[in-house]
Automatic annotation (TrEMBL):
GO terms for biological process: electron transport chain. PROSITE patterns: CYTCII. This is Cytochrome C. GO terms for molecular function: electron transfer activity; heme binding; iron ion binding. It comes from the Bacteria. It comes from Steroidobacter agaridevorans. The chain crosses the membrane at residues 17-35. Pfam families: Cytochrom_C_2. Keywords: Membrane, Transmembrane, Transmembrane helix.
Amino acid sequence: MFSEGNVLNRTTALPRLAWAGIAFVGTLLPISSFADDQDVRDYRSHIMKTMGEQFAALNQISKGKAPAADVATQAEVLRITAGVAKVAFTPKVLGGEAKPEVWDKWDDFSKRLDELVAAATDVSKAAKQGGVAAVTPKLSSLSCKGCHDVYRVQKK
Ligand code: HEC
């Protein structure tokens, strides 16, 4: 009979829904709640190293030393990577090559990251539309060094 079946389903489905809810909330917690300080430093280091590799690949391509056909892919990966940098720097965890100024002047630092994302988006668009010739003059707009001069510990 229909009504009996429905009651049974409801009593078993409810606890299952509750567990699903708890699991879902778990995925929304900020990374800092289950990553220790070294994890936070390592993660932002991975992101920056990826950007370093993408930037190096684009420079190679713009000098004709790597396949021009890859330019749009490399630029798009750089754009995506730049987009996750801000979250990685948000927890105030000193160390690595990050100067304390990153968090002391967070407004300026995060604004620079937003500008990086905008510049990388522009480079990626240029790569798709105009290829290497359109990308080469824009590479300096990524201002990697401008930020490093202020916020990254210079290696001796
Ligand atoms: C808004 C500021 C900012 C911008 C823009 C920026 N960086 Fe960085 N970068 C940093 C900081 C701060 C560190 C040090 C992070 C740390 O060690 O925790 C860093 C570190 C690095 C590292 C060293 C990573 C390691 O652990 O060895 C590389 C490589 C790098 N950046 C590449 C780039 C490239 C390439 C660009 C441009 C496409 C760029 N960065 C743009 C702030 C910036």
